[in-house]
Amino acid sequence: MKKFKGYLIDLDGTMYRGSEPIASAADFINALNKKNIPYLFLTNNSTSTPENVSDRLNQMNITSTSRHVITSSLATAKFIKHQKSDANCFVIGEEGLYKALQQEGLTISEEAYGSDYVVVGLDRGVTYKKIAEACIAIRAGAEFISTNRDVSIPTEHGLLPGNGAITSVIEVSTGKHPIYIGKPETIIMNEAISELGVAKQDIVMVGDNYDTDILAGINSGIDTLMVFTGVTPYHEYSSFDKKPNYHVKNLSEWIDHI
Amino acid sequence: MKKFKGYLIDLDGTMYRGSEPIASAADFINALNKKNIPYLFLTNNSTSTPENVSDRLNQMNITSTSRHVITSSLATAKFIKHQKSDANCFVIGEEGLYKALQQEGLTISEEAYGSDYVVVGLDRGVTYKKIAEACIAIRAGAEFISTNRDVSIPTEHGLLPGNGAITSVIEVSTGKHPIYIGKPETIIMNEAISELGVAKQDIVMVGDNYDTDILAGINSGIDTLMVFTGVTPYHEYSSFDKKPNYHVKNLSEWIDHI
Predict the structure, then answer these.
(1) C-alpha distance from A149 to closest chain B C-alpha (Å)
(2) What function is annotated for this protein (chains A, B) (predicted)?
(3) Under CATH, what is the fold of the domain B6-44+183-257?
(4) Handedness of CA B190, B192, B196, B201 (dihedral sign)
(5) For residues B134-138, average pLDDT
(6) Domain residue spans in chain A?
(7) Distance between CA atoms of A251 and A248, rounded to whole angstroms?
């Protein structure tokens, strides 16, 4: 069995479900730490900051620092910075997105019209007025960026609209398609691979969601390890067009391969 | 030239543009009144009541009463009433939709979960919470109805998101498709044809928007008269797959045929 030198790891459904850690998640991370194998957590969540995420992991006894966390907001901010380091951004989103953009030194514009970028992340306080302003700015030429395609987010109240659903209002109204950043896109993956500092052939992407985690790995040309502790049920395995390189029912089965 | 015995007439782009009446619109309606030819105004607008619409027309010296006006909200309320006369409706919308449902004796539910119908019209005060509740109700089995597909609405500030764009959040997040009521659907047309009380072969649909007005007429098997005073430019005429029966640059050219 191949020994990987770097791990990219999904969170929801792989490390925890809601507020509950998944069995063996802490042991899995401890095994990586013990062998000094670098890893990063990769989440499409755009509302939390890396600090919020690592606090949550630590509360579940899963070792992490904020530097272990790449959110779709962080990857979005880095992507925009590469394109235009003094960009002016009109933002629909929450704290995680605002802070990520500010930390990259980008300007947050109160005025949509005339901004360089309209950046959309999940915003549970979004208004019609803000969406309308975003549409006008995009029609006037602003670049349209969206943190991720997720159409719904699992909560204790049920499946609520995700950022992909919010983004669709603007997409449908303007007829313009955004650049998506989060998994399964390669943009967030390239950011993570470069941050990890390990050659691509030695990295594995670990996750429970075929459509985001596993396709992200496949799309970016790295190996994939699928776990069945989250959204994609095991019985769907046979229907995958492109299979993950490895799959386990849960992470405990993989620890010996680290 | 065929003499029609009943007219269905679009408003925006056909009778007025924004707050300005279109030349000959008042003369056109006066000619119908003079010959006692029945007519109805048909609008996808879901936020205004028929009274709001007729007041606006009268201010522009275009003769009308609220009984001449069928909004997409009115057609929605009548459609639901035919299906379930004691329906319980969770509503995303503005005054025009609420009043229409109430006037048909339907119950407006504050609680989305467990409602019979989730009814969506343009709501410029819509919140994430309301959309999220609507999604949960639809996943739980509520019928999903949307007043119209219009993706954008022309305003003095530019093109703003229309009801079709708002509806797409729920559609994308739940994966369920709504029943649309407004033009170019036949639901609003059948309601209007029945209200007009004239045989279908003697009715003409008049409008400026190929994708809504003209297709609505074609879809419901009545004749169509296209005017080029609104959104669809004349140079697109040659590209229409199914042509309108008649077309004029503006309504003054048609008055002699009334």
Answers:
(1) 10
(2) Catalyzes the dephosphorylation of 2-6 carbon acid sugars in vitro.
(3) Rossmann fold (3.40.50)
(4) negative
(5) 97
(6) 6-44+183-257, 84-180
(7) 7
Q: Which of residues 97-126 of B touch A (CB under 8 A)?
A: 123-126
User: Which class is B85-180 in CATH?
Assistant: alpha beta
- Specify the pairing of strand B152-155 against strand B158-161: antiparallel
Contacts of A194 (CB under 8 A, 6+ apart): none
Exposure of B18 in the CB half-sphere (CA atoms within 13 A) = 7
**CB-based contact A257:A1 (threshold 8 Å):** yes
Coil vs helix vs strand at B237: helix
Q: Encoding tokens for residue A21?
A: 């850690």
* Alpha carbons within 13 A on the beta-carbon side of A129: 4
Tokens of A154: 């699992």
> What one-letter code names the amino acid at A212?
T
pLDDT tens-digit readout, A203-232: 999 999 999 999 999 999 999 999 999 999
CATH 3.40.30.10 fits A84-180, yes or no: no
- Residue of chain B minimizing CA distance to A139: B159
Backbone angles phi, psi at B86, to 5 degrees: -110, 35
- Nearest residue to B178 (alpha-carbon basis) of B204, B145, B152: B145
Q: Do A159 and B151 touch (CB under 8 A)?
A: no
Answer whether A134's CB lies under 8 Å from A90's CB. yes
pLDDT, residue A202, reads 98
Structure tokens at B227: 């005017």
Distances (CA, A) of B78 to A141, B100, B188: 42, 8, 9
- Chain B residue at shortest CA distance from A135: B160
Please list every residue in chain A whose beta carbon sits closer than 8 Å to the beta carbon of residue B173.
151-152, 159-162, 164-165
Quick check: A135 contacting B, CB < 8 Å?
yes
CB B161 to CB A129 under 8 A?
no
The answer to whether the beta carbons of residues B222 and B9 sit under 8 Å apart is no
Looking at residue A109, the DSSP 8-state letter turns out to be P
Contact B136 A152 (CB under 8 A): no
CA distances from A148 to A122, A163, B158 (A): 9, 6, 27
Q: Which of B44, B160, B126 is nearest to A173 (CA)?
A: B160
**Global ipTM:** 0.89
Residue of B nearest to A156 (CA): B136
Under 8 Å between Cβ of A118 and A142:
yes
Confidence bin at A18 (pLDDT 50/70/90): confident
**For B202-230, how does the pLDDT look when each residue is reduced to its tens digit (9 = 90+)?**
999 999 999 999 999 999 999 999 999 99
